[in-house]
Amino acid sequence: MAWAATHKVALGSIAFAVFWILAVFPAVPFLPIGRTAGSLLGASLMVVFQVISPNQAFDAIDLPILGLLFGTMVVSVYLERADLFKYLGSGLSWRSRGPKDLLCRICVLSALSSALFTNDTTCVIFTEFVLRLCKQHRVPVLPYLMALATSSNIGSAATAIGNPQNLVIAVESKISFFKFLVGVLPAMALGIFVNTVLLLLFYWKSLKPLPKIDDRHAIAAGDVEKETEHDPPNWLHSPAVIDDLLRLESRRSSRSSSSFRRSRSTRSHVPEEFDEEAGALPPPPSSPPLKTTRASRLRRKVWKVCVYLVTLAMLAALLYGLNLSWTALTAAVVLIVLDFSDAGPCLDQVSYSLLVFFSGMFVTVDGFNRTGAPGQLWKAVEPHARIDSVSGIALLSLVVVLLSNVASNVPTVLLLGSRVAASAAATSGASVTRAWLVLAWVSTVAGNLTLVGSAANLIVSEQARRAESDKFNLSFWKHLAFGVPSTFIVIAVGLPLIQG
After folding, report:
1. Per-chain mean pLDDT for the chain
2. In 3D, which of 190, 187, 199, 184 has the Cα closest to residue 105?
3. 82-136 pLDDT, tens per residue?
4. For residue range 12-66, what is the model confidence (pLDDT) as tens digits?
5. pLDDT attached to residue 449
6. Where are the transmembrane segments (predicted)?
7. What gap in Å lies between CA 118 and CA 356, rounded to an integer?
8. Nearest-CA neighbor of 20 among 51, 49, 41?
9. Residues 6+ apart with CB under 8 A from 217
């Protein structure tokens, strides 16, 4: 695209710069309005500066992408209510064989969960659980938070619904869900393996063996007296062991209360009126409430099974090649109807701010495209960044990695997607589908480079920093130390496996 008028180029660049600054640094001192408001501000400036007309701004908003985002978020809300993520979390600690085994489980489970339910959802659900797990097993938090964030990003690359930029690519390229999965899955599988090995090597000294679980329970069960004769070990005073002792004491108290309640109920001379001040216990509940409880539990089990079946049907429809947006929206509506109650509380959990952010970003990026600046930049790079050669793929990957961490991965895909595809179409022997999938792989894994490279990273960092207990500060530099080698190595080993 040729350059627009000089004043439009200048004003459009200013509007895009405002959007970029607030998207990357949402709490800048001179304008701390956040990412969502910054996106709307950038879009408004594009219209006010007359870089694009109001009608062009409305046309720039991609409704299929917003519909797909909304549908998948609603489905995720109902899956959370159906305890799916709780079951997945329980699988992390089931028969764990130590810190290294636990790290591998987090990598695999977060990758699979992200591929099916988006990386952002996975990080929102699992961050606090990982913090509690680290406290329980008395292991350092940093390796496990890095495993969660990096594996979620890598795993989300495998499907069209794994992350926002993949949604954009799937809609724009019209690549089917199945073809997308087959094209990227081998790279994702190898990438997760390599990333897990790098995590183990990088944090090996921090991943020390755990005390034996049997020893902990023996002490909790009554051997404390033996330990008090000498100085107790340091780990005995850890929060995890204290929690075990309190839990054991609570169980003993509940058993005592149950025995006392049964003995009171069997006495024939107990009067019908109970003296609460004297400490008498109320009579046991009658049978009708028990039947109601059983019925409600049965209804909940049936409802949970229905939620899982609807989700599986949605995935099957996506694999079959049905429309991405309407498949997700239909699954969301079916779950709302099956719930048979006011959908307001569930719909309130949808991240509408993300939908608004995307709407403003679509307008801002479209306006910046109309200035001609991205086209001219790509025109200079394109002859050296074609996917029909190793050097071309390497240069393209480097450009995408840098832009994804400077301008975020979704704007990068919106700016470069059509141009990369057009370049592949004009190159003999190059596959347009593979060009889109290479862009999806690189832009997604590029999110692991820095803390601000992916929304999933920021979610993990903020959730850990604001946790009610066991807070942890995942800083920019702590993330960067592992993010740099992991990003470039994983991208490099995955690129040859991308199929188009």
Report:
1. 81
2. 199
3. 988 778 777 776 777 788 998 999 999 999 989 988 888 788 778 878 888 888 8
4. 999 999 988 887 777 788 888 888 899 999 999 999 999 999 999 999 998 988 8
5. 94
6. 12-31, 63-79, 141-161, 181-204, 305-338, 350-369, 390-416, 436-460, 480-498
7. 18
8. 41
9. 244
CA 374 to chain centre: 30
Nearest-10 Cα torsion for 46, 47, 48, 51:
60
Q: Please, is 500 exposed, middle or buried when counting C-beta atoms within 10 Å of its C-beta (0-12, 13-18, 19+)? A: middle
Single-letter amino acid, residue 460: V
> How is residue 243 written in tokens?
């929690």
Q: Are 158 and 184 in contact (CB under 8 A)?
A: yes
Q: For residue 410, what are its two tokens?
A: 């979704």
Q: What pLDDT does 127 receive?
A: 84
| Cα 80 to Cα 345: distance, rounded to the nearest angstrom | 13
pTM: 0.70
N- to C-terminal Cα separation, the chain: 27
Give me the sign of the Cα torsion angle 183, 185, 188, 194. negative
Separation of alpha carbons 60 and 67, rounded Å: 15
467 C-beta neighbours (distance < 10 Å), count: 15
* Both structure tokens of 299: 């209804």
| Phi and psi at residue 162, to the nearest 5° | -75, -30
Instruction: Give whole-number Cα distances, 352 to 71, 168, 311, 359, in Å.
Output: 12, 18, 22, 11
Q: Which token pair is 180?
A: 């997308």
> Which residues have C-beta within 8 Å of that of residue 370, sequence separation ≥ 6?
1, 4, 8, 12, 51, 52, 56
Read off the amino acid at residue 488. Answer: F
Whole-angstrom distance, CA of residue 167 vs CA of residue 362: 13
> Mind listing the pLDDT tens digit for each residue in 64-93?
888 888 998 899 889 889 988 778 777 776
Please say whether the beta carbons of 330 and 12 come within 8 A.
no
Amino acid at position 259, single letter:
S
Token code pair at residue 349: 């959990």
